Amino acid sequence: MRSRIAAVLLPILVPFMAIVAALLVGAVFLIALNTDPLKVYEKLISGALNSTYSLSQTIGKATPLLLVAIGICIAFRANVLNIGAEGQVIVGGLATTAFALAFESLPSGLLITLSLIAGALAGAVWGGIAGVLKARFGVNEILSTIMMNQIAIQLLILLLTGPMRDSSASATSANIIQTAQIPKQAWLPLLIPRTFFHAGAIVAVILAFVGFFFLWRTVAGYRIRAIGANPDASRYAGIQVPGTVVQAMLLSGALAGLAGGIEVLGVTHRTIQDFSTGYGFSGIVVALFGGLHPVAAIPASLLFGGLLVSGSKLQSVGINQAMVTVLQGLIVLFVVGSTEITRRYRIRRAAEQGRMPTLESEIGQPTLAEEAG
Amino acid sequence: MADTTTTIVQIAAQGVAAATPYLFAGIGEAVGQRAGIYNLGVDGIMLMGAFSAFYSVYSGASPLVGLIIGVLVGALMGLAMAFISVALKAEQGISGIGLYMFGLGLSTLLFNALVETPRPVSQSFTSAPIPGLSQLPLVGKVLFDHHLLVYLAFLMVPLTWFVLNKTPLGLNIRAAGQNPQAADSLGVNVAAVRYLAVIFGGAMAGAAGVSLSIAQTNIFQENMTNGIGFIAVALVYFGRWSPIGIMFGTLLFSVVTTLQLWLQAFGVQISSSLVTMLPNIVTIIALIIAVYLYKTQTPAALGRPFRREES
């Protein structure tokens, strides 16, 4: 009985211990900077929650984060380490904007749907390139996706200063680098007027459940988890490992592209220069924090969405918002660093019960790339 | 004509100098990978090295002290990576990304808290032409008229090559990455060797950062590496895990990074976005080539934590 409770608690306990540890290490740096860590951490909480507006900002940030994180759950489950969500979000946003601007005469519902599909497709292509490079040539996907991020950022600047540039007088005179505004009928409806709480949040939550269903209740999802847990055994079982790798990257990229599209239709209503401010990396933190489970990513996305919102308000206590990146990095290190401990625990538990560790119990999380290169 | 020659010599010299951070970071990474650990946090370590060296000089220390501090900070971050990947046996790719985010965040945080606005330091590593050699026609200017860190980076090439290939320590490093079980049964302390290799890699990444902030320039900027660290990791694959291979890779890369200058010299204008994009595209191509040509030369145990009980 005791061990059963522990089994339920463990996946919840690990991320929270990671947060506590990250906050403690963060506090050391803050104290060294002559800043009261309690004041900073108080601001981190209140900044995200202190008003309806802040709350809606949190939900607004959590929406793209959640979509990115669902995609990362899928890729990481296949042991494909997609670090390229940043670039996939950018091309997704660009494609959605371009489509909405080009077909502005379409009726609202159709325009929104097709624009978002355009964004998801662009993201899928961007992610798919890295998938094909890995499956076909064996190119390390972490490195290729990081390169694709940089390429996407330059592509964004190229398009925003060139073919997709906002030619309106106000933007030209102020030298603002952005696209023109998309037509009103392409905007996602707001669930609460004059906030950031738009319909995209609902789409993201639904997709989190779809992602869960896909991974654990479909054959394609099983294949993805199988190649992540044990590529050799999967190969013997007849699973096409390269094809499944590409599939995982396509899906992961599509979700990140969709995140970019929803951000455009729901919040920015155009593509701007700082379009994706770290959604890619934050999405990784959200996915890892949620134990690579799409549904668990829902609360995780709210937590880290809130952190991004309150982080931007830290300047009032004299601390740069980079503090959030520091904490995120530490949380990643602590979560990944604790996998060996949980792994040992799971094996011991399986041994106590006199059974072989199964895909679910022992490798509930994929072994995560014990093969690099 | 003489004018064109001067321009070409100048750009070539810039290319050699531009190779410095890639060389430091790449060689350090190669040693770690030879021992079986791949550290993707290089870019974050470089940023911390760059900042700590900059801040030391900013507070009145000499550039040499700045270098030492930058290298020490790098080694410390290498130690953190080693602890996570060797002792905790964590997945190395994601740990590296975590370390990168930590370094990126912390260097930005510290810079904003301690320096606030970008400002140059008055002291930095300045050009130190090698007497005699720098007087050689053409080659002298290109190769022997640089700041100290350029020479140091190129000196690390034969030095690391020698240690890796001709010393017992090098043998242990390669064994730890190739077949840790066998190495362990022969009495090699795999964990200690891996620690050492990753700490060395961190120190080298720190030096790479130092070369950016107080040698090539005399400023620190948020995210000033802009991904150099990741390209350096890719160059390790392209350079076949050999210091000499990496050196040729970085020099090839220098041509790409100074491409804009070359094109301008020949009167061609190109969008700066395309120029910035190019190294990344070339990196992907280099990775494809590397996998095609050298797949079999990857250290066999690269990325695999060593668990004694399972051998």
Concise structural overview:
The complex is a heterodimer of chains A (373) and B (311). Chain A has helices at 2-32, 37-49, 52-77, 85-102, 108-137, 141-161, 169-174, 200-217, 219-229, 231-236, 241-268, 279-289, 297-311, 322-337, 339-352.
What's the helix-strand series of chain B? HHHHHHHHHHHHH
Shape designation of chain A: globular
Task: Please give the largest β-sheet of chain B.
Answer: none
Number of DSSP helical runs of chain A: 15
The level of helicity of chain A is over 70%
CATH class of chain A: Mainly Alpha
Kindly report the oligomeric state of this protein: heterodimer
User: Total number of helical segments of chain B?
Assistant: 13
Low-confidence stretches of chain B: none
Distance between the termini of chain B: 67 Å
Provide the residue-averaged pLDDT of chain A.
89
Predict the CATH topology of chain B: ABC transporter involved in vitamin B12 uptake, BtuC
* Straight-line N-to-C gap of chain A: 43 Å
Please name the CATH topology of chain A: ABC transporter involved in vitamin B12 uptake, BtuC
If classified by CATH, what would the architecture of chain B be? Orthogonal Bundle
Strand content of chain B: under 5%
Provide the residue-averaged pLDDT of chain B.
91
Give your account of this protein's structure:
The complex is a heterodimer of chains A (373) and B (311). Chain A is mainly α and 373 residues long. Chain A has one domain: ABC transporter involved in vitamin B12 uptake, BtuC. Helix content of chain A is 71%, strand content 0%. Chain A has 15 helices and no strands. The termini of chain A are far apart. With 311 residues, chain B is mainly alpha-helical. In chain B, helix 2 packs parallel to helix 4 and helix 3 packs antiparallel against helix 9. The longest helix of chain B has 33 residues. The mean pLDDT of chain B is 91. Chain B has one domain: ABC transporter involved in vitamin B12 uptake, BtuC (Orthogonal Bundle), CATH 1.10.3470. Chain B is 71% helix and 0% strand. Chain B has 13 helices and no strands.
